[in-house]
Amino acid sequence: MRSLSLFLTLATTPTTLPAQEPGLGAMEWLVGCWERTAANRRAVEKWFASRDGAMQGTSQVIGAGEARETEQLRIFESSGALV
After folding, report:
1. What is the Cα–Cα distance from 5 to 29, expressed in whole angstroms?
2. Which of 14, 12, 5 is CA-nearest to residue 36?
3. Structural domain count, the chain
4. Which of the four pLDDT bands, split at 50, 70 and 90, describes residue 72?
5. Which end of the chain is more exposed for a tag (fewer CB within 10 A), N or C?
6. Is 46 in contact with 57 (CB distance < 8 Å)?
7. Domain membership of residue 47 as a residue range
8. What's the rounded mean pLDDT across residues 69-74?
9. Which strands form 55-63's sheet, in the order they lie side by side?
10. CA–CA separation, 33 vs 58, rounded Å?
11. Residues 6 or more apart whose Cβ sits within 8 Å of residue 1
12. Rounded CA separation 66/7 (Å)
């Protein structure tokens, strides 16, 4: 599994990247499973491209052997912007 810490580092580090495909295609790098373990808790995110053209994700924080937080995530394009 890829590390969620890599995601957080990349998401918060200012960089100059080559031009990417506009819109939702620029988010395809999220597809897969991301995990971060720290002390006594673990965060796991799973992303996939859904049939309707959006990106779907689930996130779960596990501590003391049980889910502490769970959320459903969705990224889609509306009026040319990602929401």
Report:
1. 15
2. 5
3. 1
4. very high
5. C
6. yes
7. 2-8+25-82
8. 94
9. 2-3, 32-38, 41-49, 55-63, 66-75
10. 10
11. 33, 34, 35, 44
12. 24
What CA–CA distance (Å, rounded) separates 11 from 70? Answer: 21
Q: Quick one: pLDDT at residue 47?
A: 96
Q: Is residue 58 part of a domain?
A: yes
For 11-66, write each residue's pLDDT tens digit: 555 555 555 556 888 888 999 999 999 988 999 999 999 988 899 999 999 998 88
- Is 30 domain-assigned? yes
**Which amino acid type is present at position 31?**
V
- Residue 39 in any domain: the answer is yes
Higher per-residue confidence, 11 vs 83 = 83
What residue type is assigned to position 11 of the chain? A
- Largest Cα span, the chain: 43
Q: Which helix (H) or strand (E) holds 24?
A: none
Residue 17 within any structural domain of the chain? no
How far is it, in rounded angstroms, from Cα 81 to Cα 40?
38
